[in-house]
């Protein structure tokens, strides 16, 4: 029995050869050529390409910061049992930020100065937190520094309009909540890193003119006071 021969254009060999041609590098390179990598000059710089020694002012918009911090508070609030626990967790999160802020500030100081200076007295260190740390984190300085009249180991940093409190709506049943516990954690981390261990808390101290006024209370450890007395001798 004779079988009909397939048409030459539909033969297996012709199909195989055509498929091989399509898969060959010479044929595919013409149809599916990959564009050459862009040069480094034309590539857009990312945040990792920025210099750590030359900071930019207002890198993050206030609305983006407020949204992120609001989500942070809501996320933490769902996992706590009370106001004290919520403030403690916000303080812990702020402490983690404070360690990185101090590391970055020390790096910039050592890179920009041939003779970098480290504060060994408490008051100059507190002034640097009031100005440099506040400006690095919030884009502005704090409003005042006060010393307790009753207790020699207590100092206060006053912020009349803290950015972390600006867009936070606290319910009436949680009126004692201070979201600036996050800021208190930052201050505590910086003080610990500079060698001034202390317990830092935040308290709402509103006034008629400044309803969001917050006081960051710093209670120094006994070892810090003893060292300060040695410097005065």
* CATH architecture heading: 2-Layer Sandwich
Number of spatially distinct domains? 1
Number of strands: 4
Q: End-to-end distance, in Å? A: 121 Å
Class computed from helices, strands and strand pairing: alpha+beta
CATH fold-level assignment: Muramoyl-pentapeptide Carboxypeptidase, domain 2
Gross morphology is globular
How much is the average pLDDT?
82
**Residue share in β-strands:** 5-15%
Give structural attributes:
Muramoyl-pentapeptide Carboxypeptidase, domain 2; alpha+beta; 7 helices; 4 strands; 10% strand; 233 residues; four-stranded antiparallel sheet
Short description:
Helices cover 46% and strands 10% of the residues.
What would you say this structure looks like, in words?
The chain has helices spanning 12-23, 25-31, 62-77, 83-112, 122-138, 181-194, 222-232; strands spanning 144-147, 154-159, 198-204, 214-220. A hairpin with a 6-residue loop joins β1 and β2 (154-159). It has 233 residues and is of the alpha+beta class. The longest helix is centred in the middle third of the chain and has 30 residues, at 83-112. It has a single domain (62-231), classed as Muramoyl-pentapeptide Carboxypeptidase, domain 2. Strands 1-2-4-3 form a 4-stranded antiparallel sheet. Helix content is 46%, strand content 10%. The protein contains 7 helices and 4 strands. α4 crosses α6. Belongs to the TRAPP small subunits family. BET3 subfamily. It is found in: Endoplasmic reticulum; Golgi apparatus, cis-Golgi network. Keywords: Endoplasmic reticulum, ER-Golgi transport, Golgi apparatus, Transport. It comes from Fistulina hepatica ATCC 64428. Its main location: endoplasmic reticulum.
């Amino acid at each position: 029995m004779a079988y009909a021969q397939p048409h030459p254009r539909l033969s297996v060999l012709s199909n195989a050869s055509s498929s091989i041609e399509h898969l060959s590098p010479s044929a595919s390179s013409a149809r599916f050529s990959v564009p050459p990598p862009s040069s480094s000059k034309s590539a857009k710089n990312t945040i990792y390409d920025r210099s750590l020694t030359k900071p930019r002012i207002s890198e993050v918009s206030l609305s983006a910061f407020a949204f992120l911090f609001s989500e942070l508070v809501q996320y933490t609030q769902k996992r706590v049992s009370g106001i004290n626990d919520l403030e403690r967790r916000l303080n812990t999160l702020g402490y983690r930020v404070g360690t990185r802020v101090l590391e970055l500030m020390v790096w910039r100081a050592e890179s920009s100065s041939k003779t970098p200076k480290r504060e060994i007295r408490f008051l100059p260190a507190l002034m640097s937190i009031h100005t440099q740390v506040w400006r690095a984190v919030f884009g502005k300085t704090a409003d005042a520094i006060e010393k307790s009249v009753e207790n020699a180991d207590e100092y206060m940093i006053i912020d009349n309009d803290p950015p972390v409190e600006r867009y936070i709506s606290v319910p009436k049943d949680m009126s004692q909540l201070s979201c600036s516990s996050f800021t208190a954690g930052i201050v505590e981390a910086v003080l610990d890193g500079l060698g001034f261990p202390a317990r830092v808390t935040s308290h709402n101290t509103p006034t008629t003119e400044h309803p969001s006024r917050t006081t960051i209370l710093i209670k120094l450890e006994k070892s810090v006071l003893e060292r300060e007395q040695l410097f005065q001798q």
